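P.,

For your records, the input lines for the assembly:
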Amino acid sequence: MTHHPLPQPDDIPIREKEDAMGAYLMMFAAVAVGLPLPVINLIAAVIYYFVNRKKSRFVHFHSLQALLSQIPTTLINWGLVVWALWIVFTDLTLTPEFWSYAILAAVATVFYFVVSMIAAYKARQGKMYYFLLFGKLAYDIAYRIRDTPQSSEPVNKPPF
Amino acid sequence: MTFNIQYAERQSRLELLLRSFFGFLYILIPHGFLLFFFGLWGAILSFISWFIILFTGRYPQSFFEFQVGLARWQTRLNARVFNLTDGYPAFGMTHADPAVQVDIPYPPSLSRGLLLAKLFFGWLFVLIPHGFVLFFLAIGVMIASFIGWWMILFTGSLPRGFHNFIVGYMRWSQRVNNYMGNLTDEYPPFSLD
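Structure tokens returned:
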């Protein structure tokens, strides 16, 4: 067996379900502190991950998946912020390329919002929910059985 | 809710002077720096909890414990700021302080209707009436703190009445914060006790 068995919804305490759900809601962190910068959400997701990952594998999986899945949206939105600032401080011309990118960013954000809401709902029910790519990666990291090195040579030795 | 700061029969004059003249360096700046970031995190959790309560009717227990830990830390700090007790306030969310007891019972469920009422009309039925009284109490606390400082300097202790008044004000403010922060559904009483 390469991975730990998955817990079933009835086996997971409500506290863990709530902690897993909370991971996806970190996408509202920027709104909470009143700073509409995409990086705030990512920082909040990183903090949340490191605070909660030891609680259980279920919480570890969901908080890691929430963190990883935020990276592409954050990068896309940062691109939009930088581009918008560039326009503001240069020629103030909104090109069709900019609008195209802005629509892409909006669609990506809405899509991310929807799948995160579904994941938060599933996590609250104690269910696994796998995102494309990130789901497998998060599952592997959270549930993989790590081999502990079996060394016959003791590390600590007496002085003589 | 339990909120109490133990009355100190004797206080050190030297600590009082140190706290008063250099406290901002060794108490306020390090604690304030950390509490700023912990407070931001608390604000994020509180904001997210609002939506969670709306949909599930429960305050997530981990989030709740964080808010209680934050309240304890702030109270430990305030106890020194108001010269209610000696000693250096411990850093962190889990440290126990024998002089300061703050505990908020975890509510198994919270009212969604009340949650919305607080959002839209909280300023009307909580913030204005309580804020009005707390404003005048705060003036009283400032005067009591000022006079209390001199009394500690000359007699080595803060009069018990002053102590109870300042602690009562802090308790009252905490109860209002708990209610508006959705940590409880119990309307805060107009009382120092």
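Two observations worth noting. Chain B has one domain: 2-180. The two ends of chain B are 11 Å apart (CA to CA).

Regards
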